[in-house]
Specification:
- By secondary structure, the chain is of the alpha/beta class.
- About 40% of the residues lie in helices and about 15% in strands.
- It is built from 12 helices and 12 strands.
- The strands form 3 sheets. The chain has a 6-stranded parallel beta sheet, with helices on one face.
- Helix 1 packs across helix 2 and helix 5 (about 75-90) crosses helix 12 (about 300-315).
- The chain is elongated and about 85 Å long.
- The N and C termini lie far apart (about 60 Å).
């Protein structure tokens, strides 16, 4: 059973108000060093954990930030969440994480975080969704930094330069002598997928090189290693004259699956088909042949985003802040 503040007060022989003021370092409150020592010793011995939500009412802050990302099956998002939690803790904040398929989903709502008092939010979403709209205006008083894509709606954001990264990776593939380069995406063709910057870079570079672009989508628009395996096997089953000699894949997660699918079907990577990913995850670098990819470190995105968010929490009301992060080409052994 949880230890109450009353139990701590009885152990020390002071009022509950004194316990609360000492633990919260209330400005101007006078208590002897001996009393403070007894209180902290009692807290440690009894295992008392204060009510963070109740303390936040008096302090005006919860020392908690909310983090919304798409899914943790993608190693990139797992690394982003871990980095955010670590950096937040170092700054005295706790990170509450919510996983959602899409902030702009048909439900028009974001799940459970709207019920918690948070000082600010980091949100991974597309470049047009506004969290307040998707959450029923639940976060209208909280500063928000959007992650993933640049924005033009007057909100704060941190993004990777996906177009520059897409150009780097596609130009590298063509520089290796490939001529029939396809692009694999998990996006539905019923939406304007060609506005996605990695894909736009691929189509631009392909046309500049004088070749025909060829974009394919994963089955059911899934984003997983399993679906990558299926695509790899399907491509391997095509006649050699019809299949691509290189695949530029939207992220490492799917590319790792494609790599396994091609290899399981007896094709050689890169001798038969060259392959690239995007994100620079450890999983891709730990393949038998390290994946050629574009490194976009989530640690740096977390650091920059939290700098902006903590500045807003502290009262900085300057105009909208946007930060574009450049990626680095990692040439592995799949091209």
């Amino acid at each position: 059973m949880a230890v109450s503040i009353k139990t701590v007060a009885e152990r020390v022989g002071v009022s509950e108000a004194t316990i609360s003021r000492v633990l919260n370092n209330k400005p101007g409150f006078q208590a002897s060093e001996d009393t403070r020592k007894k209180i902290h010793n009692a807290v440690a011995e009894l295992g008392y954990v204060g009510n963070k939500m109740a303390r936040s009412l008096g302090k005006g802050r919860s020392e908690t930030i909310g983090v919304i990302v798409d899914c943790l099956t993608n190693p990139y998002f797992a690394m982003l969440v871990e980095s955010t939690a670590t950096l937040s803790a170092a700054a005295g904040y706790h990170a509450l994480v919510e996983i959602t398929p899409s902030v702009g989903s048909a439900s028009g709502r974001v799940g459970q975080l709207s019920g918690w008092p948070v000082d600010g939010m980091l949100v991974w979403t597309n470049h047009w969704t506004i969290l307040q709209d998707a959450s029923g205006n639940a976060y209208k008083d909280s500063p928000i930094v959007y992650l993933g894509y640049p924005r033009t709606d007057g909100t704060d954001w941190v993004a990777s330069d996906l177009y520059d990264g897409g150009r780097q990776i596609t130009e590298h593939v063509y520089d290796t002598g490939r001529k029939n380069v396809w692009y694999l995406t998990p996006y539905d063709f019923d939406i304007p997928v060609r506005s996605e910057m990695r894909m736009r870079a691929y189509t631009d570079v392909t046309k500049e090189r004088g070749f025909q672009d060829h974009v394919i989508a994963t089955p059911r628009c899934e984003e997983s290693t399993d679906v990558g395996v299926a695509v790899g096997q399907q491509i391997a089953a095509m006649p050699k004259s019809e299949r691509p000699d290189a695949l530029v894949v939207q992220n490492d997660l799917i590319a790792i699956g494609v790599y396994r699918g091609l290899r399981d079907a007896g094709l050689r990577v890169p001798e038969d088909i060259a392959l690239t990913g995007f994100d620079g995850t450890l999983e891709g670098q730990n393949l038998e042949r390290p994946l050629t990819t574009l490194s976009t470190p989530p640690q740096e995105m977390a650091r920059v985003a939290l700098e902006i968010l903590f500045s807003r929490i502290a009262g900085n009301d300057a105009g909208p802040i946007g930060r574009m992060l450049k990626g680095t080409l990692l040439v592995g052994k799949t091209t």
